[in-house]
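DATA SHEET
Item: assembly model
Revision: 1
Owner: S.N.
Input lines:
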Amino acid sequence: MSNLQSIKLFIPELIVVVTVLVGIIADLFYSKKKSYLTGNWILGGLILSMIAIFFHNPQNVTTLFTDMVALDPFAIFFKLLILVATIFVVLISRYNKEFTEYRVGEYYVLITIMVFGLFLMVSAVDLIMLYLAFETVSIMSFILAGYLKSERRSNESALKYVIYGAFSSGLMLFGMSILFGLTGVTKICLIGNNLMALEGSANFALAIAFVLILAGFAYKISVVPFHFWTPDVYEGAPTTITAFLSVAPKAAGFAVVIRFFHIVFGDSGALQAGSWLTQTELPWAQILALLAVITMTLGNVVAIQQDNLKRMLAYSSIAHAGYMLMVLPVLSGDSIYAIMLYLFIYIFMNLGAFFTVIAVKNVTGGETFADYKGIGWKMPLVGFVMTVFMFSLTGLPPTAGFIGKFYLFAALIEGGTQFYWIAFIGVFNSVISLYYYMRVVKVMYFDGEPQKTITKPILPVSLILLVLASLTIILGIYWAPLADWVRNSLIFYIGGM
Amino acid sequence: MDLNILSLLIWLPIIGMLAIAFVPREKVDIIKIIAATATGLQLFLAILLWMQFDKTTGSFQFMERYDWIPSFNIFYTLGVDGLSLPMVVLTPLLSFLAVFVSWNTKRAVKGFFALFLLLDTGMMGVFLALDFFLFYVFWEVMLLPMYFLIGMWGGPQRVYAAIKFFLFTLFGSVLMLIAILALYFTCGQTFDMITLMHTAPTALNGVLWWGMSAIKVIWILLFVGFAIKVPVFPFHTWLPLAHVEAPTAISVILAGVLLKMGIYGMLRVNYGMLPEAVWWFAGALAVLGVINVIWGGLAALAQKDLKKMVAYSSINHLGYALMGMAAIVAVGAENGNNYAAAEAGMSGAVFQMFNHGTISAMLFIIAGVIYDRAHHREIAGFGGLAKQMPIFAGVAAVAFFAGLGLPALSGFISEFMCFVGAFPVFRTIVIIGTFGILINAAYFLRAYQKIFFGELNKKYSDMPEINGRELFTLIPLAIITFILGVYPAPFLNVIRETISGIIEHVATLGIAPGIF
């Protein structure tokens, strides 16, 4: 579709852009103390954008701006997912005491720019567009991770993030350029076709190109061995940003991985169970399976040893990336379905866990296990919701986390006996993860009373936590609407139209 | 019947739990009364169910079926048959009594009873669910309250015991989850347990996974899941710890109901859906049974702590049930089509399940009564309590003798049936198993003698006699033990048709030639 025609289908993104501008201007009118009010404007903009998305014809599959970005139910699903996560983060940001000393107008604006980048990321079908979207998101996250300027940990986190980020985007860009050199196109859907026409002598270059591109993607969803930035960045960044990074860019990263691998490698890019394109002579299914298995095992095993809750949750998020990655080798519609369902559920439980960390840090000033001693008795609501989130992250019914894992394992088992070993390692990992998630519960309830006097969190924080916990439980008991919605979103642009 | 009695049985405790949530935490008495009412009503309904139950059929009754998540073929299906009915009655009975056992709980009473009622719902759900997904959800839901009940209200090592229990059982259940999914995808995408019982044997026939029959693979996955719960020998290490650290009421539930889920699961799922593998595994089952009997017995003999001794006696007692279950192969042609032996063994196993529920519950309550007074449970630390507490000594005698399998008490009949059933097929194993009875007698008599006879320990010369509340928790169980010991017919009649249905199922679908 030409540029001019595209505009009217690009309204949600345009609203986000306008919101950014409004946010910047609005911030000029607030004093430092009142700068959190910018958040209201941003919130309004995000909600408007969400409404605009609902006006899309859900079955409309097309591309915008001369095949740069796709407009399909798959992208819409991820846009809504990102908006939901962002709205929660914006809501809780106001009550995060880490920001007391800072002006927060820019903070909200930067998050919104990131949302714009994420929107493009989930819908990009062109390598150049993809790279630009990646960079928009990355640069915003670097700044946001270092937002607490006077805190050394935050600075360290930003610096590490920049170095790792720059390195892996460089790798990815290099891979993309090789791919372009081989196929002569940047459109993802044409790459697959042109690959088939390649001669065997190109295989080596092709393998290198894909490994490099994979490195870039793996960095975004923090897959081992590209995960090294995760614990440090998550620990040092403002907790609201950690929460945001752990869900939104990760979801977008998965959207990119799914789109890229399915269109480029899948037979005809179809969503039925397909076989991997053999052109590259690399065993993609095995490579991805191995990455998934290593990622979740490392995440879980290292999480056990952590003493800082944020760091523990960072490793836990690595493990969860592994769980989601493990169904990718199956290359079936049901495996993508499972990932999408899991991501949606993951938003609530993971945001919930991080928000609880904020709520506790607001009153105890710390985020190590020692700060959680007896919380369950002094802050009954926080203790209860944290327990729900921990159970959900472990994957125990009747919480939503179980449903998510259930669909992941179901997709694996459906894939056939060659995938059973991944399922076995996956379930054993759930058992390992139980240990450290339950440690939080243990500290909160079994280890006696806290030394300090603790006040309960303020009402809005309690409400947000309660909403997230209720969603976690409700989706664990009745998730039919969610399942149907995800099923209907399982259509994406595969080119050739 | 218009009333959905099974749903009511499951959700009554949850209603109680919600009611408790709205009671301020200082109103301890109201909380206890709510808990007692909820479980009491549940017991009443269960007895009503027993009376209305049609003994002449082995099929499922009082079925309920509603859509839950149609896109994944998940339904809310409930039903009861002769296999689950005894447990459906035992669960509320023990829950009701356990409320009174824990009447004097001091710490966080509100939390205790709320979690306790949640546990009750989970247990009831497991026995009534006929949809595999629903079954699994209930199976797991039990873990959460159990973890808290042990970890929060338990003894000195409670935190370790709680996480160990949790890790062991979760390990078992995730294996079960894979087996459930494998059954779902290989047998026509259904979680319906009744359908699976008919489709699974044919659908899996001849399917090979990694050179091994799929039936065997799934059997092993499910078996390990259930064996951890029973617990069968190499998986038993969580049990003594959990039992010793748990508060008395929870030990009662743990021994009385939770351990039975393992056996129930094997009979319902393994026997129901994988009848071929029964023939393959029966020998191993008998061997595991006898190991449980001897190992559990010897370990119990070595214990100095009364509660630990009772815990190990559970392992011993459930070994008999495993041997009885293995006896089902007596019906096979190579074993002489001995239907009577198969029926004796299987009924014995189910009966043993029920009897162990009542007897071990009594034993744990007794250990609790002693502990409440003396604050320790060293068997050797007492002596002559019979003079001090004659009534208590009398009730304890019933429990101890029932535990060691004295004729005229129910434990004897079920153990005897297990032996009789298994004897024609597993002669040597049964002979070894009978030594278990001897060991059994040795540790129960020794413990009874050391605690109740001999010189009265001066420290306990002012120990108060058992009070009315404690007596109230013990007497119903003692009466049941006694009645079923003399006249087991009412019980055996209820389970007969279902048992013969299972035997027939295994016999006809099981011997498909050329699978193994």
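QC remark: The longest strand of chain A covers residues 62-64.
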